[in-house]
Automatic annotation (TrEMBL):
Residues 26-147 form the FAD-binding FR-type domain. InterPro entries: FAD-bd_FR_type (IPR017927), FNR_nucleotide-bd (IPR039261), Riboflavin_synthase-like_b-brl (IPR017938), SIP_FAD-bd (IPR013113), SIP_fam (IPR039374), SIP_rossman_dom (IPR007037). Signal peptide: none annotated. It comes from Rhodococcus erythropolis (strain PR4 / NBRC 100887). This is Putative siderophore-interacting protein. GO terms for molecular function: oxidoreductase activity. Coiled coil: none annotated. PANTHER family: FERRIC REDUCTASE, NADPH-DEPENDENT, NADPH-DEPENDENT FERRIC-CHELATE REDUCTASE.
Length: 281
């Protein structure tokens, strides 16, 4: 990939009719925490900054970075730049993926929202982080670029998908229409969203049901009917197992082709650092 080629590809996809994954040149940066705040009761936002943030690229609402942590003995093993990608050491270092919630080049700030849960490696790290805490950030490796020419958009997920959904809504044109379903524990986890007038948002309260064990999201998505002749793009993320029936519904009943939807597991019950690319679904 020549530098700048991905920008031409992004422009082509935006001018087209279907979504597509676009890779970006990947970098590794050492950044530091400049601010920490809760967003609702379920998300902790860390704002990162530092000189090495210069040149960071951000183009798609679901793009992510990977935070790289020292080994248990304190050894820090980082990936090395290899052209426009990264070469990772083996065995792989401890790392976790997080959605780019906001990037402000002028302010030199990068926001990452952490869904808090007991025993989560990155969740525990984020809660312990203070101003000045340093971390290495790899990526983004790319993102799904979607043209704004669809008649409607369907966004759905649990709290781990909420940062990407919030960014999706901010990037949408004011005339966009569609549906948003977000499964959370209770109203305290609801957050303020920038929502186009034609988009309906429904918060789904799971209550005492453990995360990843509810079918609220599936039942909500099944209420969607696409008006005849209209084109819909669907983006849905959350716990991998619970997404399987939703994936079948979107493909078989809504009839969306591969370029018209992305459904991806962000995590899986009982699996640390889950990567859906390694999962047979």
């Amino acid at each position: 990939m020549n530098r700048g080629d991905h920008l031409a590809t992004i422009a082509e996809v935006l001018a087209g009719t279907t979504g597509a994954k676009v890779p970006y040149p990947i970098g590794i940066r050492e950044l530091e925490v400049v601010r920490s705040e809760m967003v609702g009761t379920g998300l902790l936002r860390l704002t990162l900054g530092g000189p090495e943030l210069a040149g960071f690229e951000s183009h798609a609402p679901d793009e992510h970075v990977r935070l790289v942590y020292p080994d248990a003995d304190g050894t820090l093993r980082l990936p090395e730049r290899d052209g426009f990608s990264l070469k990772w050491p083996r065995p792989l270092p401890i790392s976790r993926e997080y959605t780019v919630r906001r990037y402000d080049a002028e302010a030199g700030e990068l926001d990452l929202d952490f869904a808090l849960h007991d025993g989560g490696y990155a969740s525990d790290w984020a809660q312990a982080a203070t101003v000045g805490t340093r971390v290495h950030v790899a990526g983004p490796p790319g993102g799904v670029v979607v043209p704004w020419t669809y008649d409607r958009y369907l966004l759905a997920g649990d709290i781990t998908a909420l940062p990407a959904i919030a960014r999706w809504l901010e990037m949408m044109p004011a005339a966009a229409a569609g549906w948003v379903f977000v499964e959370i524990t209770d109203p305290s986890q609801e957050i303020e969203l920038t929502v186009p007038e034609g988009v309906e948002v429904r918060w789904l309260h799971r209550g005492d049901v453990p995360a990843g064990h509810s079918d609220l999201l599936e039942q909500a998505v099944r209420t969607v009917t696409v008006p005849e002749g209209e084109r819909v793009y669907a983006w849905i993320s959350g716990e991998a197992t619970s997404l399987k029936p939703i994936r079948r519904f979107v493909r078989d009943e809504l009839g969306l082709s591969s370029g018209d939807h992305l459904i991806t597991g962000y995590w899986k019950r009982g699996v640390a650092d889950f990567d859906e690319d390694d999962d047979d679904h």
